Amino acid sequence: MADLSSNFLGIKSPNPFWLASAPPTDKAYNVERAFKAGWGGVVWKTLGEEGPPVVNVNGPRYGAIHGPDRRLLGFNNIELITDRPLEVNLREMTEVKKKWPDRALIASIMVPCEEESWKAILPLVEATGSDGIELNFGCPHGMSERGMGAAVGQVPEYIEMVVRWCKQYTRMPVITKLTPNITDIRKPARAAKSGGTDAVSLINTINSIVSVDLDNFAPVPSIDGRGSHGGYCGPAVKPIALNMVAEIARDAETRGLPISGIGGITTWRDAAEFIALGCGNVQVCTAAMTYGFKIVQEMISGLSDWMDSRGFRTIEDFQGLAVPNVSDWQYLNLNYITKAQIDQDLCIKCGRCHIACEDTSHQAITSMVDGARHFEVIDEECVGCNLCVNVCPVDNCISMVPMTSGVDPRTKLPIQPEYANWTTHPNNPMAKVAAE
Amino acid sequence: MGSIDSGIRDVRAGRLASDAYADVFSDLHPPLTRHEAFVESDRCYFCYDAPCMNACPTGIDIPLFIREINADNPTGSAKTILSENILGGMCARVCPTETLCEQACVREVAEGKPVKIGLLQRYATDHLMTNGQHPFKRAESTGKSVAIVGAGPAGLSAAHRLAMHGHDVTIFEARPKAGGLNEYGIASYKSVDNFAQKEVDFILEIGGITIQNDKALGRDISLDALRAGFDAVFLGMGLPGVNELGLEGDDAAGCIDAVDYISVLRQSDDLSQIPVGRDVVVIGGGMTAIDVAVQTKLLGAENVIIAYRRGPEHMNASAYEQELALKNGVIIRHWLQPRALTRNAHGEVCGITLDYTVMADGRLSTSGESITLASDQIFKAIGQTPAQTVLTEAGIALSKGRISVDDEGRTSIPGIWAGGDCIAGGEDLTVAAVQDGKLAAESIHRTLMQQPDKVSGFVEAVMAGNSEGASTPGQNPNHPSHVTG
């Protein structure tokens, strides 16, 4: 049976599933329930400076995008960092860590971008026995207006500076949490690395207005008729998070930097994908907020069973296996030719492949053959784009079949077995000589 | 049971507890809630050239109306439905969807679970009719007038389309109320809460339609008078007669027209006042047979037997309807054909003898065996008959007693159109009658306005579907063809 135990920066946990810094980890009561349910670790909800805590709105904090059966697809919040006094959080963290020594407990921190502020809070956190700290440079709403959160995460120099202070004033491992609200995720990751961070975690939430109430013309959630942008998360953001994780995993400057993956992780499969792209562990929030802590049982059994089926004994056995296969477009094999193929036994004749191809792509699927409703790929027109596969409502009905020999009926050119990419393509004015 | 020996018929009203009737006769398919409509509409694949749409006799754009429901626009959805079928509300309740749109649904083919198109259609039309304004506007008056005979589905459909085009319509209806079989003929659990009259009121909101009740063709009005007084005439009087068993005593007490009985039941304010037998035998195999059998069972009959002379696959009632009867405790006996009625001392029918039938060389014959069933009530549900005399006298060409029409609903007499159950080749379905009325109305409109070339988008599409080799995807070339006589 697979061993799910995790060792991230020397922080041990029985499994790689941590709860991200968020409402589920705001107090001992919730965190203990999470540990009882089986979560490997938590990142305690972000601590602020000593003194009067922040206040939250007292109206709705969340908004969501739903499927027709109210399945939550995307989630948005305007909640700030913890609104409980620092000393209460620290006391509870100490107690919980003492009670649950085998679980990871990380403190998320957000204080003003001044050395004194960081210098002041770090010893207090270290005294709790926490296993590490996570720097909240990601929160995109409210705190960023006060020069914290994403306001720091959007300036690589600030990231580097604060990370350096943290490495200077604590022995605890430092995880730098990155905001996706930037143009190139590699810049903040490189800065964190330069500052000496032990790891990065990403993504934090994405600036978002989840919807507009058309009765009142106000963004949702609406506070007394007015709304503010929030942070978007949940299943909808997973593809964005995966790309950003991959960018860091394969960047020459940050390659090998430990990554804690966050962003829409809902099932074991999502977690496995993040780990395959190089993450050492994963953090979950929205799925727990939607279904409760019990979901970790499915994640544990699913990951374990999948690893068994693939012969992976430990998390490290498959960590990063997908990274070498993430490539720039220019290195994709232009000699690789596929054609869509429709399994007529599975086809239910809805015609979606036809109309999608006919209206919006390459007119490569029939609707009528010999007077009968019949959907079939016209190889002479098919560019292998995969649109039909994606719009087909039947699993495995349409597949993309590679052509390995003969002539491509569309281009009338022979299939070339060898790899060739854009960098050497004759149409590329910048083409390099193949021999180079 | 035993009544055949004693000759004492057990026919009583009030077989159920007085508070049980409302529950027993409640809506057969309760309407979808808003959430249920979202979930169900999400199952629709929005098929290209959708098979469901092509299976709908009125050609409703089903994928579009379902998508409109899914996008939280039930009003727009209802407009999509009603623009092709102004009786879309009733059709959502009474259409045999299991043999039309839902049979064609790709999910029926794939998994045996079609999208619930009928219930979705009801969701949208109920929404509009409950909350909305009448969605269509009457064109400026053309000054032309059209007479319509019969305020059933065909007549109402024709009237609405004609009124929308700006013509003045007068409907002559033989009965005290409009609605035709929707009002008098359909099983009450399929149309609760007086829906048929609400739908009539909704249709009349377009304006320009007058209904004259208690005016029967041949009794109160003549075809000549209509032709003289109006620019065009549409006949949609349905089938006013019923077939007799052809046995001695088939007009005696205890031998009842199913259509009449259903009509009494539908018009009743108090179902506990309707007499029903303990042993009931229904002769027939169509929707009417099922409707009367199920309703007598619901009224408290102990034994209800449908006797049909052929097998289940030959019944006009769909498999779904047959199942509905079985679920309600009705027994369906196939391969039995009436031979003689037993009458008691009062001359009332108290039993029926039926011959067993067999199919040999494609011909139905009796096997020589027979069975006698006790019956307190025998219902005749073996088909309805046209108003042949009045039509013959008028010189209208008929086919098997029904009016011959072309694919636009034109009869052999210029200026007279016809549609619905009274025409030859009709399908005896509400939805088919609606289509007949709509197509005839468009034809009347073109004729009255003398605009053969300037046709509306709808007719254009239908005609494109009809013209040889010009079959346009998305249009059903077969729609109008069923009305050809």
From TrEMBL, chain A:
Enzyme Commission numbers on file: 1.3.1.1
Enzyme class: oxidoreductase
Source species, domain of life: Bacteria
Reaction equations catalysed: 5,6-dihydrouracil + NAD(+) = uracil + NADH + H(+); 5,6-dihydrothymine + NAD(+) = thymine + NADH + H(+)
Record keywords, A-Z: Iron, Iron-sulfur, Metal-binding, Oxidoreductase
GO cellular component assignments: cytoplasm
Domain 4Fe-4S ferredoxin-type, first and last residues per copy: 338-371, 373-403
Residues making up the signal peptide according to the UniProt record: none
GO molecular function: dihydropyrimidine dehydrogenase (NAD+) activity; iron-sulfur cluster binding; metal ion binding
Keyword DNA-binding: no
InterPro entries: 4Fe4S_Fe-S-bd, 4Fe4S_Fe_S_CS, Aldolase_TIM, Dihydroorotate_DH_cat
Matches recorded under Pfam families: DHO_dh, Fer4_21
Keyword field contains Lipid biosynthesis: no
Function statement: Involved in pyrimidine base degradation. Catalyzes physiologically the reduction of uracil to 5,6-dihydrouracil (DHU) by using NADH as a specific cosubstrate. It also catalyzes the reverse reaction and the reduction of thymine to 5,6-dihydrothymine (DHT).
Family: Belongs to the dihydropyrimidine dehydrogenase family.
Oligomeric form and interacting partners: Heterotetramer of 2 PreA and 2 PreT subunits.
Protein name per its UniProtKB record: dihydrouracil dehydrogenase (NAD(+))
Organism annotation: Phyllobacterium sophorae
Automatic annotation (TrEMBL), chain B:
Superkingdom in the source lineage: Bacteria
Gene3D superfamilies: Alpha-helical ferredoxin (1.10.1060.10), FAD/NAD(P)-binding domain (3.50.50.60)
Ranges for domain FAD/NAD(P)-binding: 145-437
Region (Disordered) residue spans: 466-485
Biased composition (Polar residues): 468-485
Domain Dihydroprymidine dehydrogenase per the UniProt entry, residue ranges: 25-132
GO terms for MF: iron-sulfur cluster binding; oxidoreductase activity
One Pfam assignment: Pyr_redox_2
Alphabetical list of InterPro entries matching this protein: DPD_II, FAD/NAD-bd_sf, FAD/NAD-binding_dom, Helical_ferredxn
Name this protein carries in UniProt: Dihydropyrimidine dehydrogenase
